Each structure stands twice: as structure tokens, then as C-alpha cells.
Amino acid sequence: MRLPTEARRPISRAGPGRIRGIAAIAALVFAACGPSAASPTAPLATSTPGSGTPAATAATGPTGTLTIALADSPQSLDPLQAWNSYTDIISLGTYDALVQYGAGSPAELQPWLAEKWSASSDGMEYTFTLRSGVVFHDGSSLTAADVKYTLDRVKRLNSGVAYEIPAYDSSEVVGDLEIKVRLSAPYAPFVAGLSRIYILNSKLLQANEGTDDGQSWLALNEAGSGPYALESYTAGDSTVLKAYPGYWRGWDGSHVQTVVLKVMRESATQLLALQGGDAQVALDIAKADLDGLKSGGEFTVNTTDTLLQFYVAFNTKSKGPTGDVRFREALSWAYDYRSHIEQVLGGYAAGAQGPLPKAIPCHKDDVTQPTFDLQKARELLVAAGYDPSTITLKMAFDPSIEEHRKSLELFQSSLRDIGITVDAAPLQFTPYVETLRSYDTTLDLASIYEFSDFPDPHAVLYPHFGSAFLLGNGGYNWSQYSDPRVDELLDQGVGLSDLTARCPIYDEVQEIIANDYPVINISNGGLFAVVVTGPTVAGYKYNLAHHRTVNYYDMTVSQ
Questions:
Q1: What is the spatial distance between Cα 178 and Cα 208, in angstroms, rounded to a whole number?
Q2: Which of 6, 38, 321, 439 could form an SS bridge with 317, CB 3.0 to 4.6 Å?
């Protein structure tokens, strides 16, 4: 039940088998690595964005403190674990990637540390030219050797964001600012996947590798070149970031100097902090409070299209009724989709259409999508030979998430009307994942959040519906679904570089999956996509490729 924040993915891509990081030690504060962790107090040097060359000290620099209220802190600061939004929101500020999806331009992949790149005609090799003048927070220059070290470490550890670049094979440093990267097979979204691969200061990490490739050290420290340096981290309480003077994109008065990521687990606590000015941004305000904040005019309730999709997953490998596609189809007509959107989510979402979120390229607008029709559900059950009064199903949900609880209650009510009993199975993410290790222990139904880390159809369809990820094998196939034709088509699609050629392939994939009913597709967006900003904040924009994060480098706060 991957928490879309983390969540990629509670029973959500809190995401995807993804809790593999080193647990942070609670209640201790740790200083960031290197001398750059010191808090800048004087105005910072500025530069023309992208120039990499700091200019003379300007009259103005970043000012003020932006406090962001979050429901939790990450298990590890290691950017390898940036599939988890609690890690990613910190990594976005403390590290850079070769390429990036900027906030407010969701489908536009931008040059970042890499000024340019090219691919070989067979799609097996990429050459990246790096930006000059980029420095890490200890003052050392970024080179191609740091990129190679980072990519090789991702491959060695093969966890976390490694799923973003599964075809990475090796790389060769051609010069200080040039690197050649070789793949084991053509992989269309390779460059897009690099947006989650944050480049490490290789010398600093090598000095702190220990016996676990630096995982323990990076759980509590950072080794990046991003706009902010880590000043302190207190697990379960707060993370404090300070503007790094030498950042290559530069600084002026349109940036904040200090960012505080403050853990406030309860929605009511976040609401009080917003109203009292102790936080300027909140990510977990309850639905019951959003309309009041919006109508008051003082706060902004930010909503947008997202890659987040909520669905109910069936155990398609069950020896019971959910293993029968006819039964799954019947139950898909028994979900009250409109009540979910209007009552459970208060209208802060749109209805789903098939297994691919609408914001993803190649989404098929006319794919099979049931509506709420209890009479049809009854007829399909009878036609399939089922006596509803004899059926009891068990449904997993995360009890800490309102939408999960309400979805369970909604489905229980509908199915009760046609004679089926649904027993609640409250499970948070880790124990839920353990149930997927066997088809026999996988529950009949489960409430799931899913989202991809970049807008590409393969990033959704492959890990969630590919046979390679059955039995919790490193992916997010919550429904234990497999189909040989789907696997074949997914392999074809990922080997093509032209999106126009890939879309017909993914059209067929979507139709096959939709008609096999492994999941009940319910909504796009929802409360996990709502961010509330206070009256002193400007510049917030949602980042489609970095769900449940905040673009604080682009924001200002007036005191």
C-alpha cells in the first residue's frame, strides 16, 4: 500500500518493496558533512543560472525560513532511497541529478548536471557532457568520475532507485566532464530514470564507505552538490537545510535561506501550525479542513493532475473467487466510484480511466472502465455460478490513511447489499508486503496508492503488472498479475525510442489489463496530491515527477 509520499510507492509505493534503507537513529541530531554545512549568514554570491560561475557578492541573497509540515521523516537520507518521498524531498534540495523534471513543467525533461547528451543508433550507449563549475558542498569540483561512482554504486547495491535504470551496465570516464554509459539492452526511459539518480561526491563517500558502501553514513549525512546543505537531522522531528553559497544555479532574493522540514504527524497539528504561522506549507491537511481554508482566502489549496492513482487490487492468483476474472469483473461494477470522488475525497480528485494515470503519455481514453451498477454486479455473479451469501473476502488497508479506511467502508457497504461479506485487515506497509511473499498469504483485496517517478507508461505498467515482480520480487505487482502477452508487449515497448511507435503497444497492454480486472481503478489525484500554502509563501509549483515534494529552491517567504 505504497504511500505516495512516502509512498512510490502505507499499503501503497511507500512505496514500492521499498523499505530497504538504513533506519535513522531517533532523537539524535547530526551535522552535515564538510565545512559547507555551516549556516550561511551573509548575503550569498549569485550567478546566472546555468553558468556555473559565481558572480560578485550581490546586495541580496536568499532570505527567510520556510517551514514545511510533513507527517514523517525518512528512514534514511541516502539518495538511493529517493523512491520514498520523505527522502526525495530532502535529496531534491541537497543533490543534483544529470537530468531533471522541473516543477511546473511536468512532462519536460531538462538538462541539469548534464548540459547535453546523445545516444547511439542502437540505443545501447549514451554520452553525457557535464556542466562545468559545479561544486560539492565540501568545495570539490564535480567530475565524470563522480557520475561513474554513483551509477556503479546503484548497480552494486541494486535497491531503492536502482529500479529506475535496470538496464545500466557500465560506464567509462572519457574526460573530466564527459562520460559514456553502456546499457545491457535498449531501454527507452533510461534518461528519464536518471532524474532519480542523485550524483554523489565520490571522494567524500569513499572516505566514509565502511563495510556497506556508505549506506550507514549516508543514512545520516549528505554528499551532494544541490542548492542546500544539510545542517541538522533529528529523526522523527526535523531536518534543517541551509542555502549553499557556491550552488551553480545561483542565488538572489527569490530564494529562501533556510528550509525546515518539520514532522507533524497529525493533520490537526499541521493545521494549527499553518494558522499560527509556525509552518508555511503543509502536505497532510484533512479533507474536512480544506474547504474552510480555501474559502477563507488567506491560504491556498493547491491541486493539480498527478501520476497518483488509487485502486483496489485483487489477488489474481488466489484459489478462491478473486482468481476468477468473471468474479473480479462483477466486483468492479460494485464499487461506488462517484461516492469515492465526491464523499471520500471531497471532489479533490478525478475518476480513473483504466490502469494508466491520465497524465501519462500514451494513456488510452476509451479503455474499459466499469461504473457503479449493483444490478449488473449481481447478474455477473449469478452467470459465473457464485452464491454471494457464501463468500467472505478479506481486504487489506492502512488504518492510518483516511482514504483507505473510507474506501474499505464504501466497498463493504456495496458488497453487503449483494450478499458478500468483507472483513477488514488493517496492515501498514511492511507487514502488508510480507503477505505478498506467497500467493496463499496474499489477501483477497487491498487498498493501494500507486504512482511512477516520471511520466512514462513503462514506469507504471511494467512494475505493477509485469510477471517479473510476482511474489514481491522487487516491484509493485500488488495483484500478483501475469499475462504472457502483456510481458511480451512491455518488452517491445521499452526497446523502442520513438514514443509514437510505443503508444500503440501500450494501448494494447492497457486494454488487456483492463479486461483482466486485476485491479479496480478508482481515482487520479486525491488528498495526497493537495498541498496547502500560507499567505507569506510564493512560488510553489507541483512537480509531477516528484510527488509529495516541495520546490523550495524556487520559493520565497516573507516574514
A1: 26
A2: 439
Phi-psi region of 288 (alpha: psi -120 to 50; beta: other; left: phi over 0): alpha
Cα-only R_g, the chain: 23
Q: What is the per-residue pLDDT across 73-122, written as a single tens digit (0 to 9) for each?
A: 998 999 999 988 999 999 999 999 999 998 986 668 999 999 999 999 99
Domains contained in the chain, CATH given: 29-92+214-270+532-557 (3.40.190.10), 100-203 (3.90.76.10), 309-526 (3.10.105.10)
Q: How far apart are CA 169 and CA 547, in angstroms?
A: 28
Summarised one tens digit per residue, pLDDT across range 379-433 is 999 999 999 999 999 999 998 788 899 999 999 999 999 999 999 999 988 899 8
User: What are φ and ψ of residue 198, in 5° steps?
Assistant: -85, 130
Q: Is 65 exposed, middle or buried (0-12, 13-18, 19+ CB in 10 A)?
A: middle
β 109-111/114-119 pair status: unpaired
* Higher pLDDT among residues 527 and 543, named by residue: 543
Among 201, 194, 178, 192, residue whose Cα is nearest residue 132 = 178
Nearest Cα neighbor of 13 from 192, 220, 163, 238 is 163
Contacts of 393 (CB under 8 A, 6+ apart): 320, 321, 322, 415, 420, 421, 422, 423, 444, 445
H or E segment to which residue 132 belongs: none
Pick left, alpha or beta for residue 96 (phi over 0 → left; psi -120 to 50 → alpha; otherwise beta).
Answer: beta
